[in-house]
Amino acid sequence: MALVKPTNTSFAKIKVIGVGGGGGNAVNSMIDSGLIHGVEFISINTDAQALLTSKAETKLQIGSNFTKGLGSGADPEVGRTAAEESYDKIKELLFDTDMIFITAGMGGGTGTGASPIIAEIARESGALTVAVVTKPFTFEGVRRLQAAEEGIEGLRDSVDTLIVIPNQRLMDIVDKKMTLLDAFRLADNVLGQGVQGISDLITVPGLINVDFADVKTVMSESGSALMGIGEATGENRATSAARMAIASPLLEISIEGAKGILYNIIGGSDLTMTEVSDASNIIANAADPDANIIFGATINEEMGSKIKISVIATGFDEKHLKFTTGNRPYFGAYSKDSSQRAAQQTQVIETKPVIDRAPSGFVQPTTTNQLTQSQSDQTDGQSGTDVSELPEVIKPSAPDLSDDFADDFEIPAFLRNNKSK
Length: 421
What we know:
This protein has 14 helices and 13 strands. The radius of gyration is 21 Å and the shape is globular. A seven-stranded parallel beta sheet has the order 3-2-1-4-5-6-7, sandwiched between helices. The protein has a four-stranded mixed beta sheet with strand order 8-11-9-10, sandwiched between helices. It has helices spanning 20-33, 48-51, 64-67, 76-85, 87-94, 110-124, 142-156, 170-173, 180-203, 212-219, 237-246, 273-286, 338-342, 411-420, and strands spanning 14-19, 39-45, 58-61, 99-105, 128-135, 161-166, 223-224, 226-232, 260-267, 292-299, 307-314, 323-325, 346-348. α1 (20-33) crosses α9 and α9 packs antiparallel against α14 (411-420). β1, α1 (20-33) and β2 (39-45) form a beta-alpha-beta unit.
């Protein structure tokens, strides 16, 4: 019988989209790290000038008729309108994708306003849609924090899984002398950790393998999620890594009560069955007794004496969440348009102001020269770029499906490394 060799089409197609300034900076950080493989990076922004600094393979400028390439001016309504204007182009960009990550810094204009629309289009395309976003530092002001909260609630309705990282918590665990630049860079890197922790489960083959179907089982329509990573060495390395993974100081919810758990243990050839069992018991005991638990194990000699554990926890009960998600057809594809769906999607348990995400009459772009690179919301409104000189589409080659991955991923160690630079 002939051996069937896998091709690129045999693997899950994963796209990581940075929306707005914070999302674009996070994508640049992920690319610079070289730690995330087997995915396509995309930057989406309203600011043509900021897009020119993006390192993503694919870039899309949205709302060029409405914003004239000058950004959103930190107004989420402008970001939302820009995404609605470019609906067809976004839809084409996300076509034929299995999993889509949306990363953004909430509180600005483009990331806050456009992310829910992009997420809605992603789910319409049938992709498993996961958002990993940050909330602003307190010093960024009350207005920006309020905009972030509203944007997060709107985004919650549009994605399968939402991971929120509050930047302010970084202040509690980093050196008080850290510069402003390093603080924002650290926030970008933490977003990258959230994406890598999930994408590695799919793209890195293991001894006990976790595949895309496993991830989809745990993350599809799961609402808020916890994504934690722990890394440790020494005699009790497995239990220490497990405890770190389920108790990240950067996340706003705990694993307690989770009904869906997916975790992966990575170690060298000296990884023992007892260590796997001990780590698994700690994770399982923290979750709901009836939780659906899927785990994998990967042997990587580059780990040396270290063990790394990645945990995704979903399916929290209502006391942990403010929303419950409505049902949708298998693998996403809706048959109704956005305005019809908006009335059916999500039941609000606790009333809060949310962004109206239902697209109203889309404005069709009149020029085809509007695809470019990612931004910083802080630079919105200061573009001097001639958009007409930008190419229509910048498309990547097939993603690198290398099985190399990072060994420096546990948050406390990561923070210490950043402090020392």
